[in-house]
Amino acid sequence: MRIYTRTGDKGKTRIIGNDVLYKSAPRIESYGTIDELNSLVGVVIANLSDENKVLTEELTEIQQLLFDCGTDLAVSPTDKKHDFIFTEDKKAVDWLEKKIDEYTSKVPATQVFILPGGSKTASNLHLARTVTRRAERLIVALMQEEPINDYVLKFINRLSDYFFAAARYSNVLDGVEDIKYRNSKPVFR
Question: Taking every annotated instance into account, which residue ranges of this chain make up the domain Cobalamin adenosyltransferase-like (predicted)?
Answer without folding.
Answer: 3-169
